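Why should sequence recovery work at all? Because a backbone constrains its sequence more than one might expect. Tight turns favour small or flexible residues, buried strands favour hydrophobic ones, and helices have their own preferences. The token representation captures these environments compactly. In the example below, the structure is given first.
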């Protein structure tokens, strides 16, 4: 059996009931086959793929807190420190009821290659908790965040592991966690990114993932003889990534017509009103029904099992920005049938393996999240740099660095795909380019 197949089988056997982790590993290993098989015995002797797929460290802990009724609640907290070959562990924290170890491992694994692609010195990690911030008071969220950090603080640090936001973790949660870290450690350091602007945060970090997604999409289109201006875009999600993807798409002259949350979706023929969306989601933390109520051109559709939501809308470009496996084979068929020619992932692994294959086989330009959503973590690394030098850069300075990073990422994966005889396969390009830097660093550092 080939070394790649052997390691994939091992991962499945050793990590039962973690389908998202298996999926992420499968995608990466399939892309690496050509690289590994060219030098199989050396990689096998070094057990490089086993080392790559086993996290350096996993921390799992109890998070007890008291709700507004005086009831004690208990949640399950996680931090997976996956790979520190090229820098301190870096990656977000996700607070969502669906969080489990397998999901955090898939996210941490993806983060290794994503962070490598940014060209910045950051290793891969991810964490989170099965806490649901929805419907909780600010006091409950604070009590939870303080308890979460009361354990996490001993495992992280500005040169060790630097968490940030992800689903369910935004500025409010980062603020509460930063405050608790500082209090316990008596140390003011850049231990988290996505901080507020008055206490060490970076301008443009809030916008960075969505803006970066559009900078990369624009470059991908340009290099394939297409222009983003005038195009209709289907976006899923209505959170941090989706909102700023919509905003930047409009600035580039495109027309995003959809967004969604966990209970329904919007089709707005006049184009999404991003200020209204921000008001509904960032300020009121309300449902999309409120968007529809305030906007006559918007149609609201309740989410129904078996229906395909935003992907049934006719569009040129699709940007999945909500969550994993939200775009399946049926959705991919609908997109192709409707003339969609480009998909760039804002979320992590939103497209199933079957859907990705179908899109690629049907000539759709497809950019995987580990490349196209890397703008968030890249700007987090810029926040770390600013914290280290105790300076703040202007919005324009950060934004232009972000733009350059996204353009470089696209060219990196484009070149890798060509070098290994898979031109246009940006999934392979991203995985190979991300892997080579990490593998070189791992080999140089000996058996560790
Ligand atoms: P937010 O919590 O800000 O928003 C998430 C959005 O997706 C919300 O609209 C939410 O709906 C929807 N959503 C979440 N889970 C589900 C689900 N299970 N089913 C349906 N809808 C769902 O998160 P972000 O925007 O930060 O993250 C979105 C994606 O982007 C994630 O995959 C994340 O890992 C990825 N990402 C985020 C980065 C960042 O910097 N924030 C960087 C790179 C990737 P509702 O409002 O109802 O909860
Ligand atoms: O998936 C991701 O890259 C993030 N959630 C952002 C991580 C970070 O450290 O900014």
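From this structural description, the recovered sequence reads:
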């Amino acid at each position: 059996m080939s070394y790649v197949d052997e390691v994939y089988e091992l991962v499945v056997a050793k990590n039962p009931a973690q389908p998202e982790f298996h999926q992420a590993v499968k995608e990466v290993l399939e892309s690496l086959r050509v690289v590994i098989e060219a030098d199989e015995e050396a990689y096998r002797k070094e057990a490089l793929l086993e080392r790559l797929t086993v996290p350096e460290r996993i921390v799992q802990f109890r998070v007890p807190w008291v709700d507004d009724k005086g009831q004690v609640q208990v949640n399950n907290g996680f931090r997976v420190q996956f790979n520190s070959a090229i820098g301190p562990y870096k990656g977000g924290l996700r607070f969502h009821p669906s969080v489990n170890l397998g999901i955090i491992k898939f996210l941490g694994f993806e983060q290794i290659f994503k962070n490598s692609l940014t060209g910045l010195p950051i290793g891969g990690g991810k964490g989170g908790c099965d806490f649901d911030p929805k419907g909780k008071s600010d006091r409950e969220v604070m009590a939870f965040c303080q308890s979460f950090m009361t354990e996490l603080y001993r495992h992280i640090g500005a040169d060790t592991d630097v968490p940030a936001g992800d689903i369910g973790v935004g500025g409010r949660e980062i603020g509460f966690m930063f405050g608790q870290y500082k209090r316990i450690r008596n140390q003011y350091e850049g231990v988290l990114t996505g901080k507020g602007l008055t206490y060490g945060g970076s301008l443009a970090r809030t916008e960075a993932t969505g803006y970066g997604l559009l900078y990369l999409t624009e470059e991908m289109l340009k290099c394939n003889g297409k222009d983003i201006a005038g195009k209709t875009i289907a976006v899923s999600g209505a959170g941090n990534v989706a909102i700023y993807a919509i905003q930047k798409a409009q600035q580039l002259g495109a027309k995003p017509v959809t967004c969604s949350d966990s209970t329904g979706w919007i089709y707005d023929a006049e184009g999404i009103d991003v200020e209204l969306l921000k008001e509904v989601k960032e300020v009121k933390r309300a449902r999309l029904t409120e968007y529809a109520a305030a906007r006559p051109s918007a149609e609201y559709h309740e989410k129904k099992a078996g229906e395909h939501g935003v992907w049934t809308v006719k569009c040129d470009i699709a940007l999945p920005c909500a969550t994993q496996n939200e775009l399946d084979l049926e959705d991919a068929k609908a997109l192709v049938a409707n003339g969609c020619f480009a998909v760039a992932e804002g979320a992590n692994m939103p497209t199933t393996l079957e859907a990705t294959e179908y899109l690629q086989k049907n000539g759709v330009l497809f950019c995987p999240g580990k490349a196209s959503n890397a703008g968030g973590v890249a700007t987090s690394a810029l926040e770390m740099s600013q914290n280290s030098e105790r300076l703040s850069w202007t919005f324009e300075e950060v934004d232009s660095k972000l733009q350059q990073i996204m353009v470089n990422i696209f060219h990196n994966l484009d070149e890798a795909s060509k070098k290994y005889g898979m031109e246009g396969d940006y999934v392979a390009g991203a995985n190979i380019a991300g892997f080579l830097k990490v593998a070189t660093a791992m080999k140089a550092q000996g058996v560790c």
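A few observations help interpret the result. The pocket of NDP (ligand 1) is lined by residues 96, 98, 165-168, 209, 237-242, 261-263, 321-323, 346-348, 373, 376 (CB under 6 Å).
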